[in-house]
Amino acid sequence: KALAFAVMRNTHEAIRGAIKDCDAAVEAGDVKSLSSHFQELQKCVEMHAAMEDKGFFPLLDSKSDGAVKKNGLFEIHHEDEKLSGALTGLLKAEDASEEAIKEAYAAWKAYHLEHLKKEESIMMPLVPKMAKQLNPPGDSLQMGILFHEKVLPYVSDLPWFAAYNCKILAKHGSTKHDALTATRVWIHGLQYACTASQWEAVLPAVKKAIPADLFRKIAEVANIEAPGKIVS
Description:
Blueprint: H1 6-27, H2 31-63, H3 67-70, H4 76-92, H5 98-132, H6 140-150, H7 158-172, H8 179-191, H9 196-209, H10 212-222
């Protein structure tokens, strides 16, 4: 079953995977590699945060008597932006020490992982409750329409965002699932939130970003080569 809102939860898993790549660069003392990985990761994080702050959080609040606001999720990205900005500044500085960069990365990583956990503790119970309010309850097409209308407009570069998330999930899988399942859940969910024209732009980018055999297996079980499900 396709779940459009699984894109939000599984982007968290892609972020965790990308942090593993950053960790490897830090452990190797490779500042250039860390800078490259972190720059891409931050592009993803910024798009994801916009989806949450401008679309997903307000939607959940409207369906849950303000639970998101009551738990402080609208403010949670402020400190993250401060810490990521400090790290980005050091990575760009020619005279920054490796030790200072490692300390800034550790501070950002610790906060970011905790903030993901806090968001999940609030959001995960609310999404099924929201789905039950639909008629019929949990309908994939209606959930896709909600995501398309309320969340997707805040993704500034959808083909890039989809390709990046799928690339990372294809490499690392997720906390609970292997690469095939994690990538399938993400991309199949997005298909249900895209128009045909959006999907025509997204699918080639994803196909290029992940191994050919993985794409083929996902296409066999999820029919992702069919058009996007939103009728424009």
